[in-house]
Write a structure and sequence with these properties.
The protein is an alpha/beta fold. 37% of the residues lie in helices and 19% in strands. The chain binds S-adenosylmethionine (SAM).
């Protein structure tokens, strides 16, 4: 074991594992208890989905009653929450086993207007202008080419339709590595060489972040994508710990502290920019 491995492990040992719920999910997933994992994952998404719907209803109540796309829907917890306020909710994800679980919940929840589609392509399998709103919650940082997907959100939205998006933590944040259970330490991914970090997390040392579905999305890169997207910004919030709130305005430094990005974006109607 090299010097960095031992330093990285010692550093991790200074932090207590937070997020017991995440630790349970990781354990169920890694030990192959798929049904139990999916049930716990769905329950987590469904609880969180209630908060997401409440948040975006306060920010953009106009999305109610329309046809909604839930991009990166996982096991469908949020999709069912959306369906309660939509004419139809369509969940899309790349993982068929999660979608099978999602579809099987319709009867239990008595929600007939949610359906699920599996697609791994950056070209969404939907017609132009066919949705009133698109939800993209905690997914954009897992996309290799966020700009292509954002362009697709714009294509499938009707003119005047809204993209409701949040993600976090961005790559520069203390938890930008997204491994609360395996790597509870702050900024471990920026402080140590990747090989040492991967070993400390229990992965083969050559594992890349991209192989783990982490595409290192910063706030700056995300904002550039949105500026070039042709969407109009209706609401944007950068969540940051109160103790360091003024750093939100300091380029580069802000990347270390912004925990979440929340935005409401509108597809312009004909003739508006
Ligand atoms: C962190 S989960 C978020 C799930 C859900 N949106 C929520 O907030 O509870 C990210 C989801 O995005 C999905 N995903 C990743 N890349 C995707 C892609 N290219 N197209 C559709 N879904 C994708 C993953 O399979 C996973 O279910």
């Amino acid at each position: 074991m090299g010097l960095f491995d031992s330093l990285c492990r010692r550093y991790q040992s200074l932090f207590r594992a937070a997020h017991p719920e995440e630790a349970d999910l990781v354990e169920l997933h890694s030990t192959g208890q798929t049904e139990q994992f999916l049930a716990a994952y769905f329950a987590h998404e469904y609880r969180k989905g209630g908060d997401v719907v409440e948040r975006f209803t306060a920010l953009a109540p106009g999305w109610h009653g329309g046809r909604a796309l839930d991009f990166g829907c996982g096991a469908g917890g949020l999709t069912y929450r959306i369906a309660a306020h939509a004419r139809e909710a369509v969940g899309i994800d790349i993982e068929q086993y999660k979608l099978d679980f999602a579809a099987a919940q319709a009867e239990r929840l008595n929600v007939p207007n949610a359906r699920f589609v599996c697609s791994a392509s950056a070209a969404l399998p939907f017609a132009d202008d066919s949705f009133d709103c698109v939800f993209c919650i905690d997914v954009v940082e897992h996309l290799p080419t966020p700009e292509k997907f954002v362009a697709e959100f714009r294509r499938v939205l009707r003119p005047g339709g809204q993209l409701l998006l949040s993600f976090g933590p961005p790559w520069g944040h203390a938890h930008g590595k997204h491994m609360w259970a395996k790597l509870p330490g702050w900024w471990t991914h920026l402080l140590f060489p990747r090989r040492a970090v991967m070993r400390a997390a229990g992965f083969p040392p050559h594992t890349t972040w991209e192989e783990l579905g982490i595409h290192r999305l910063t706030v700056g890169r995300f904002e550039r994508v949105m500026r070039r997207s042709g969407f109009r910004v209706e609401y944007r919030r950068l969540l940051i710990n109160k103790a360091v709130a003024p750093l939100r305005f300091v380029p580069l430094l802000r990347e270390l502290f912004i925990a979440e990005v929340v935005g409401v974006y509108r597809k312009p109607t004909e003739g508006t920019a």
